[in-house]
Write a structure and sequence with these properties.
The chain has one domain: TIM Barrel (Alpha-Beta Barrel). β8, α6 and β9 form a beta-alpha-beta unit. It starts with 7 loop residues before the first strand and ends in an 8-residue tail after the last helix. It is globular and about 50 Å long. α2 crosses α3. By secondary structure, it is of the alpha/beta class. Helix content is 22%, strand content 21%. A nine-stranded mixed β-sheet has the order 3-1-2-4-5-6-7-8-9. Bound molecules: iron/sulfur cluster. The site of iron/sulfur cluster has 11 residues, from loops.
Length: 250
């Protein structure tokens, strides 16, 4: 990002909340929401973070962000906006990993993820047609995802669900994800990459479908998922169920 030193980040907000998305949903988590995004999705629910604003967004050093979190917060989510627009996000992730944190990166999938530290769990979008941003997908990124990572399709319609199925099949991303006796290996904040064959038959990421309100109700993708026979994960945004009236800080 122009004019911002790699040791500084433009931040929209930091907060503690319950992680509402991914296989880590339900866990307490420290969030760093970076400002600025290169996309304009139809359903964007973080408009306040999309454009860098002179008021409301502040520059913070990497070290000050790390020291603002509670030392007990071992699960940290770097989100946005689009975090990878800022060079300093890589430094922040690296330092958090070195401090023993489990780091989640939420990225919109349009920028190169090859430099993201390998310990970071990447939660990457593939933009469906309903987003209006399908043309921005960077499919080369798929080769950098492993079985610890998560590929997310935000669904606005049946067309989007079918699009997700086409992408998963075309790139051979179907994984045999059978429920294990416990999901602790995946959900623990001290998570290490999961090599347990009970959970994964290949190196593919988890596949997540998430209905975009108000375009799609949860019942619709639930029905399509059951009909499809695919073992994908239906994601509801847990933080919006807990705090339906709060637009920030959750
Ligand atoms: S990528 Fe995320 S932050 Fe950017 S416009 Fe889309 S939904 Fe909003």
């Amino acid at each position: 990002m122009k004019g911002v030193s790699p040791e500084n980040l433009v931040v929209a907000e930091t907060f503690r909340s319950i992680q509402g998305e991914s296989t880590y949903a339900g866990l307490p988590c420290f969030f760093v929401r970076l400002a600025g995004c290169n996309l304009a999705c139809k359903y964007c629910d973080t408009q306040y973070a999309r454009k860098i604003q002179a008021s409301g967004h502040e520059q913070h050093t990497v070290e000050s962000i790390i020291s603002s979190k509670n030392p007990n917060d071992k699960l940290v989510c770097i989100t946005g906006g689009e975090p990878l627009l800022q060079e300093g996000s890589l430094i922040l992730m690296d330092r958090l990993v070195k401090k023993g944190c489990t780091v989640l990166l939420e990225t919109n999938g349009s920028l190169d993820i090859s430099s993201v530290p390998k310990e970071v769990i990447k939660i990457m979008d593939i933009k469906c047609p309903g987003s209006g941003m399908e043309h921005q997908n960077r499919y080369e990124n798929l080769k950098f995802l492993t079985n610890q990572d998560q590929l997310k399709f935000v669904i606005t319609s049946r067309e989007d669900f079918e699009f997700a199925a086409c992408i998963v099949d075309k790139h051979k991303l179907n994984r045999a994800e059978t429920p294990g006796p416990t999901d602790q290996t995946d959900d623990s904040p001290h998570h290490k990459p999961n090599n347990n064959p009970h959970h994964n038959s290949n190196n593919s990421p988890h596949i997540i479908v998430s209905p975009a309100s108000p375009f799609c109700s949860p019942e619709e993708p639930a029905k399509w998922l059951l009909e499809s026979g695919r073992s994908w994960r239906l994601q509801l945004q847990l933080h919006k169920i807990i705090w339906p009236k709060r637009e920030r800080g959750v």
